[in-house]
Amino acid sequence: MNTRVATISGCALALCLAAAAPAAERTNLRVLERAAAHLGLRGPVPLDSLEYVASGRYYQFSQAPAPELPWPEFTVDGYVATLDFARNAVHSKYHRVQVQEAGRARPHSEQTMDQYARDGVTWNLAPGPVAMPINLVERGAELWGSPQGFVSAALQNNPTIDLRRDGSARVSFMAGKNRYEADLSREGDVTRFSTIMDSPVLGDTPIEFRYSNYRDFNGVRFPAAIERRVAGLPWYQLAVSEVRVNTAPPFETPAQIAANPEPEVARVEVTDLAPGVLLFGGGTHNSVIVEQSAGLIVIEAPLNEERSEDILREIHQRFGAKKILGVINTHTHFDHAGGLRTFVAEGIPVITHQRNAAYFEVAWKQPRTLKPDRLAKSPRPVSFRTFTDKLLLDDAGHPVEIHRIVGSGHNDAFAMVYLPKQRILIEADAWTPTPAGARPPAVVNPLWINLYENVTRLGLDVRTIAPLHGAVQTIDALRAAIRPAT
To answer: Which CATH class for the 269-485 domain?
Structure first.
């Protein structure tokens, strides 16, 4: 059997070959040898790769429509996973369409996902190669958490094996900082696999794969049902229809990805929206700084600690030691909340809807062993200032109003920020303007309509909109974008 595994230090995808187990441990290793034969790893031809075809459901991690709800659901078809054990590579491609829940007006969302990893480097085609280092553990789990991948890797990585009286076993091994663990049936089927990945919001986030309904596919035993869970919630539910053996076409890491596998966070670029109001852009997500007489208000801490550190560095360069009074969070989606803990580590209060505060209080208590952040290294109490419908942060020159966005299909604990003196609205995800030169959607996005309805309902005299994705716009541009529906 060919069980080659690439060796790259410190990478969850790359599993280092362990020294031969002492003789006393060989008895326990028999459970893995039995599983290898049972799963087709001991056939006359080495099992270098495996491809499976599936369909089912996907649930979008980190984007729950309310803090306490599951991840939003998508249908999945044409799912093809290529598990290339010999080359330490994995490729998954599938088509997904978001399920429209009753009572929640969402835009139509449909994508073809094309995801790759090889030798510790991860990227998507979208359509060109885009580095995705944050997905390294997830891709490694798909490869080495598969039944054949796990057994193959465990045999080479000095596993710990706990035998049970019924002949089943729990097997685990370390790969870098990650512990990979699986349950094996008495016959040798892998029934459950687990590991953890890092999340800026949740810290050490459990991943669990459950395998059932094993069948013979082209001489290889493989589960016909795959259920993946993340953070205790459904993630993928796949029904396997076909398995192909040793047919995986080789692929290389794109040159631009190999040269820069972990791109730096984009530099903060500052734009004046009005005297005392600054837009901090320069990347995929924006923040806004408002200068009040008593100190500064920061609107949104997106992405991760690296982005928040850049924002804080820019603030200190421009405003010196001026106090930051609070950081406003619009909603709990992880790309808009991943940098909050950095502000908490500085002793800065978090201003958010009360439902979000309850969620963060629980989420931020989770362990952070994979990637300890500043708050994990130097814990301190979190100070929240919450609201339900409206909160006024008063000031003579720069009052700040925070309003709940009512009835949005995007999120149920969702806020926008209005600066009445400057007539500026700051919002995230309720309207992401169509980029210049791009064709507007054929059907008007209901989130855009809902945003304008909320502005009208509250009687806000908006002249300028500062989206937290994209370029600054006028209120007339929003009216034009929704005109076909009004």
So the answer is: alpha beta
- Tokens coding 149: 């991948």
Question: Considering just the CA atoms, what is the radius of gyration of the chain in Å?
Answer: 25
Encoded tokens for 326: 């609070």
* Rounded Cα gap, residues 323 and 4, in angstroms: 56
Written as one string, the DSSP assignment of 143-168 is: HHTSHHHHHHHHHHS--EEEE-TTS-
CATH 2.50.20 domain residues, the chain? 23-259
Residue whose pair of structure tokens reads 């359509």 in the numeric block: 127
Topology (CATH) of 23-259: outer membrane lipoprotein receptor (LolB), chain A (2.50.20)
Task: List, as own/partner pairs, every contact residues 222-229 make where C-beta atoms lie below 8 angstroms and the sequence separation is at least 24, other chains included.
Answer: 222/39, 222/50, 222/52, 222/147, 222/148, 223/147, 223/189, 226/54
**DSSP one-letter string for 213-233:** EEEEETTEEEEEEEEEEETTE
Return per-residue pLDDT of the chain as tens, 486 residues. 333 333 323 344 554 434 444 544 556 789 999 999 999 998 888 999 999 999 999 999 999 999 999 999 999 999 999 999 999 999 999 999 999 999 999 999 999 999 999 999 999 999 999 999 999 999 999 999 999 999 999 999 999 999 999 999 999 999 888 999 999 999 999 999 999 999 999 999 999 999 999 999 988 999 999 999 999 999 999 999 999 999 999 999 999 999 999 998 889 999 999 999 999 999 999 999 999 999 999 999 999 999 999 999 999 999 999 999 999 999 999 999 999 999 999 999 999 999 999 999 999 999 999 999 999 999 999 999 999 999 999 999 999 999 999 999 999 999 999 999 999 999 999 999 998 888 888 899 999 999 999 999 999 999 999 999 999 999 999 999 998 765
Find the helix or strand (DSSP H, E) in which 2 lies: none
Do β-strands 464-467 and 121-125 pair in parallel, antiparallel, or remain unpaired? unpaired
The Cα 451–Cα 433 span in angstroms is 12
DSSP string, 394-458: --SS--EEEEE-TT-SS-SS-EEEEETTTTEEEESSS--PPPTTSPPPSS--HHHHHHHHHHHHH
Return residue ranges of the chain for CATH 3.60.15.10: 269-485
- Residues near 14 by Cβ (< 8 Å), separated by ≥ 6? 5, 6, 7, 8, 88, 119, 120, 175, 176
pTM: 0.93
Cα dihedral sign, 450-454-457-463? negative
H-only helix segments in 282-403: 305-319, 334-337, 340-345, 354-363, 374-377
What is the torsional sign of CA 299, 302, 308, 313? negative
> Is 72 in contact with 99 (CB distance < 8 Å)?
yes
